[in-house]
Specification:
Length: 368
Amino acid sequence: MSAKIRVVLLFGGRSSEHSISCVTAKNVYDALDKQRYDVLPVGIRANGQMQLVAPEAMDYRLDAPQLPHVIDNGSQFHWPQSSASRQISVTQADGSLRLLGEVDLVFPVLHGPYGEDGTVQGMLELISLPYVGNGVLASALCMDKHFTKLVLAAAGIQVAPGRSLSRNQWQREPELLDSLDAGLNYPLFVKPARAGSSMGVSRVTSKQALPAALETAFAHDAALLIESSVSGREVEIAVLGGRNGTRPRTSSVIGEIVCQQGTFYDFDAKYLGADSVTLHLPAVVTETELKQLQDTAVRAFEATGCTGLARVDFFLTEHGPVVNELNTLPGFTPISMYPQLWQASGLSYSELLNELIALALDPASRAR
């Protein structure tokens, strides 16, 4: 019998999506075949400290009285000291050093800044450790909604009308409030440029509500987007990189998010099952619409340099698909859309994880 593939499952992190990452890690850990993989959970505390986490301590649930987080257990995880070795180790709570052997790859399930944005990916590149997901450029680009829109528009892909604003601009020029909504259609959506899980996002129906929405978004990032609402159906499709450099693959179905009037797909709806939102999976679309969405998803995936995975969010309008954003490390909780889309397309949760690991270990799949 061949040796197991050794996987560091990296989760937690310094972003506001720390708790979501913990729950994602719990689901991924449970689904990975322990006959095939030796999985070492490594949690990043909110202060950036990395530590080895015992599997039995990963009782992470979003319906708990308090949102989960990586609890300090006194250990300190150590990465390889150079690209010449894949040896990992941990300093235990009693101060003793324990060698953990070599690792084959890292499976990051980090959401938001300091994890999904190219920072961790750059660290892993520096020590030559393969990892699941997209590279430094695609991770950083797709984390920033403003620059993503610029790249997509340059590639001829439709995006929602909007404008960007930095905290410094707002502090220097408060009179900008008079023109922030120029050329845009209410309701507006004010969102941090580099946050996920709808953290800091507000739906604004009048100019008077803009200042409060700006402050909410600036609490999560120093830059934000103000976008017009788009008249269309909110739909999502899943993309996987192609094996051996072949064309990226999309789910054979799409999902649709249907929100009650005056609401949007916020944190509670995404992770706590709020009653204001209904998910349709698979969504009812024509063959022409499905092909348009699949083709546009692949174009967006390649235009932004993605090589691993992405969930592409659209507005399906009467003038065709409008890309809202690409999420390069989508959630893997039981109700998350990305794994559900593949499940509905015939690829089970465990098979999806196997495929992501296979892509990470295939150099040709990571090359652009």
